[in-house]
Amino acid sequence: MSGGGHFEAFPNNSKGSSGSTGGSTAGNRRCAEISELLVFYACGEVSPAEKEQLDAHLAACADCSEQLAQERLLLESCKEMPQPADAADVTSALLAQCRSELAEKLDDLAAPVQKERWQPFGWLRRWMALRPVWSGAALVVFGIVLGTQLLPWLETANDVAGPAVNVLAAPKLSDEQLSKMAVSGIRFSPAQDATGQDIQLRLNAEQPMELSGNVNDSDVRRVLTYVVENGERFDTGVRLDCLDALKMRVDDEQVRRALLLAASKDQNPAVRIKALESLRDTSDDGAMRGILLGILQHDASPGVRIEAVNLLVRSLEQEARNGADAEESGAGHEEASEEASAAGAIRALTDLQQKDPSRDVRLRSAAALRQVGARSLP
Amino acid sequence: MAKLEERALVANAQAGDRAAFEELVRRYDRDVLRLALNLMKRPEDARDVYQEAFLKVYRNLHRFRFECSFYTWLYRIVTNVCLDQLRRRQSRPEDQAPEVSNNYQDEVGTDFFERQKEQRPTLDPERSLLGRELGAHIATAMEQLSPRERVVFEMKHYQGLKLRDIGDALGTTEETVKNSLFRATRKLRNQLSELR
């Protein structure tokens, strides 16, 4: 090949077989040491002392001089060889690009760190900003859905007759809840376990709720008695329904107190009558007779007064029965006071018979006097 | 005077003066890119080296204590980045892209008349041909050098640095650099002699 002669300028064996020293062993060793330094001598990296020694040796050694020439030729060839930097960056375009990119990165590094501020629906804003047409269409659809679906639902939610939430497992009603609630409906159904009636109360407090159970349930009973005691806040029908429910538990002191209160204070005579009817099956504890006497004197409704007479008769009859039992058992020490109370009741009935403006009341009082007089009074 | 000025530039850059830092970059970045191009051969790799090296300089400038010249410190960073990239490339030869050919200038850099001018060297044509062939063989032989030997050979013969400065740049002793240069020269000679 044409270049073959050129490559022969770099023989692998850097040591010639014959040195200027005449091929002696000592001369070869000296040349070997010199050879190690020729690489650095060729590129000017020997100390002045080494250079002096090398110059002296090279002046006398043809082989080492030849090797030095080869080293220099190799270096020159390498230096003459075109470098990638010479070719790739002729127009300095690469350098300009590098500088520009570096400047950008330095800008990024120097920029103050933006604190990530939470923006509600930031993603939605960005999405809408980039897609104005789609955003407009989406807003129109949203408006339609809002107008046709959500607003009617809200109206329904505020409706008293609307769907209620079952809060059976809810904690007990507080006095504050009771004071703010309204009973919008009450429904009775036969109990599944024959313990009485099941009651469903639809309440309208801060949020609609439905209370289910029977009159034995303390929460149900509490609501019922509250309605009866605070009759002015509830409809007549609701009060009557509540009285119907409560008559099952007249043995309960709280219930009886509520019924007596309704009998004497409720604005509606029908409610007062119903309250008195509910008390038919209860035994008189003394307090009831006093209230009945008050009703007989002050209630404007003849029907209420008649029902009070009925209850008073029952009370007197019961008292008479209890007195006979006590006499048989030898316990007659309270007779004096009981007689006085009974006498008071008789006087009240006598007054009614004579003075009540209602003929019906007068007739019923007369019948009552006959009834109790024949059985209990001497 | 120039050294004093450079010291002031470095001090200002350490104090956060962006203009001072950019002035330092402009003083040396041409040499840095040249070194990177010659070592990496591929412009995109050289560009990565340039960016990574100067960003390291920027981030670590506060650690520079003037115990050596800024130039030496900069070259230490650049050569380390180059060595890392060359080692990565050696461990993943499948990632290697074609390197820039020595005819790059003919391909993209100049027009027809420019090429004609270059192909009319004052030297005789035979020598030009021999020179091209030799250059190709030397380039092939260079590929056989280890990354460190390549860096040392490049810095010595193409950047013109003294061995002591190369040692400073590589964070090693002058003796170690001498050994690397000696091995590199021997390898080149052996490679070229095999082509005989």
Structure description:
- The complex is a heterodimer of chains A (378) and B (196).
- With 378 residues, chain A is of the alpha+beta class.
- Chain A has helices spanning 4-7, 25-42, 48-60, 62-80, 84-88, 93-110, 122-130, 132-158, 175-180, 218-229, 236-246, 253-265, 269-278, 287-298, 302-329, 335-355, 359-375; strands at residues 165-166, 182-190, 197-204, 208-214.
- A four-stranded mixed sheet of chain A has the order 1-4-3-2, with helices on one face.
- The radius of gyration of chain A is 59 Å and the shape is rod-shaped.
- Chain B has 196 residues and is an all-alpha fold.
- Chain B has ten helices and no strands.
- In chain B, helix 1 (2-14) crosses helix 2 (18-40) and helix 7 (125-142) packs across helix 10 (174-194).
- Chain B is elongated, with a radius of gyration of 19 Å.
- At the A-B interface, helix 1, helix 2, helix 4, helix 5 and helix 6 of A face helix 2, helix 3, helix 5, helix 7 and helix 8 of B.
